[in-house]
Task: structure prediction
Amino acid sequence: MLFDDKTQNNIMIDLKEATDPDTNTEEGTLIDHSFRGAAAEFEQAYIELGLIDQNGYAETADREHLILRAKERGIEPFPASNAVWKAEFNIDVELNARFSAGELTYICTEKIEPRKYRLMCEQTGTRGNIKQEELAPIEYIDSFDNGELTELLKPARDDEETEAFRARYISIVSAAQAFGGNRAQYKAMMHEIEGVGACKIYRVTQNEKKIKIYFLDSTYKTPNNALVSDVQEIIDPVGKQGEGEGKATIFHVVDIYPCISETVKIEAEITIDTGYVWEDLLPSIQERIDGYFLELAKGWENEEHITVRILKVNAAIASVEGIVDVQDTALNGKEENLLLDPNAIPVRGVILCRP
Result:
């Protein structure tokens, strides 16, 4: 910090050095006692000054002061949101009917078709993205027999973490100003929409007269059709495209697309340690591969292409206890790195251990 050297002892030394040379400042004297109390107060004042200095910069501010600083630019942390599920029942239910499953509760917000509804998790955060057991009505519903969550329509997100918010704020203020339908503005629009985690924006060209936006959901997976439709409606509603009825600038025609999921089949000669069997190791290997692919998906927005690298795949497999060696790895049948389409993310396919 700025005043790290301003400790009580150092301040005492400075104060004593500033007194008359003939003045007795040894420990126990009246001057020593007076300076000691003053030095403690000065030390505290310097600590406070250091915190003021630290919280004056976005790169070092604590969360409270970072939020205050960002508000000056109209930027706030993303709050935790509510997951929205598609649910099926044995009967039709009323809107606003409430159900419980596990430790979570849900409210019916929209009828999709007979016996199929949109349910919003009443608890915010990513715990709502986890499928729960059978739904039970909180209040009695005549003829109700069963209900089930069938599809996550809109993933929830947790409160934006401090470092993620800091990085987003710094990125926004250091990038081109978002205005008039430029790339920065469309990117900001997309990230404000619940359920959106990342996006790529493609401008109008001579052959393509529409702006195209591809996106991932907030779990960095390919969004479902319902979320794509919701985002399209928010940005530039179908039937009114170019009219400025959504967030898109008037005269801008914007089409929203889901990012593609490309399945990656992995084959390798894997040496297994004594005492282990492939079937027991496979779930851990799948988890490590999923982690690597999630890391790639999180970087998709800022990459022209995602490259699935054999070196990283081997490292993920070899990190599992019980794996001795990994050789001759092939991705989708080829022993080379896999370059994906610009609008694709990798999804784990079959993992085969060659004999």
